[in-house]
Amino acid sequence: MASKAKTKNSKERSILPEHFVDILEDAFHGLLGIILFLVAMGALFFTLKRLINTEPFFPSGMIQGVNDILFIVIILEILRTIIARFTDGVYQLDKFLIIGVIAAVRHILTVGASLTLGSYKDNEAFQRSLLELGVNAGIVVALVLALYMSKKAHPAVAK
Description:
The chain contains 5 helices and no strands. The protein has one domain. The chain is mostly helical. The radius of gyration is 22 Å and the shape is extended. Helices cover 85% and strands 0% of the residues.
């Protein structure tokens, strides 16, 4: 009985109605989604411009192009997460794990391509690049394992 009275009193003390806060939150998320879409469109424009203007196209233009495209994919995945929040009402862990995997793979591809196609590096820079590759590979394995565990824990949500 006392808990019902406490709940009733706590709702009465609220400065803003919960429905109003939900509307503001949805509007803010919608605005963020529009901004992310515009950022993705701008990134696509600059990626195409850079691909056309980069000399030489092989290998530096290709490396930069792949890096830029994967960046756009990350932005679009974040946008998809915001859109999913409207339908489900919550942020989904799986979507953030996927974004993390894409980001780590993007870095692996960029470092690997620069090692393979890039100019000569001294021993210290080469060792640092190898360490980056190893750390990012570990991050990918950990995130994929977390994604697997998340899907096992919530099989009805998994698509």
